[in-house]
Amino acid sequence: MGIGHQTYGARERAEIIAAIERGAEQGRSVAATAREFGITGSVYYRWIRERARAERGADSPVSESRPHRARIRPSAGEKECLVAEMRRRRDRGESIQTVALATGLHENTCYRWLRQTGMPAFRPVEVLVAEPVPPPSLSLVAPSGHRIEGLDVEAAAQLLRALA
User: Fold this and answer.
1) Model confidence pLDDT, tens digit, residues 49-70
2) Which domains are delineated in the chain?
């Protein structure tokens, strides 16, 4: 007896894909969001490939027997536009995962292209210098109840020698 599985129509798939992409934009993993819909991350990615294949159509320049693995290289102008879009989105603080989903590129491709243009993979941050913390001080309490505070180790040692 085999394990049953759910089948989804084109509309349901589109809704699930949109929900997973919204989840990714909010920082959730594809796998976690996909599980909420009863599918795996690999099913989600297969649906994405199938959608891309359908959008390319029969007149696609891809002539490979496995079109989902075919590389369609963007022209220099297209790459320049994509990199500019990636830069704008990174400057707004979007994650590389969100940028990759929006541009339709793999995260590693986004990282590589940004690196090639000299842009750091992460946004620059302002480093704040904390106020210097004073060194800890010692306090001595005499048997009579008098308290002496603010001593460094050397001063405390001298006071104890004098009292001994």
Assistant:
1) 888 777 766 555 544 444 445 4
2) 8-59 (1.10.10), 72-128 (1.10.10), 132-164 (no CATH)
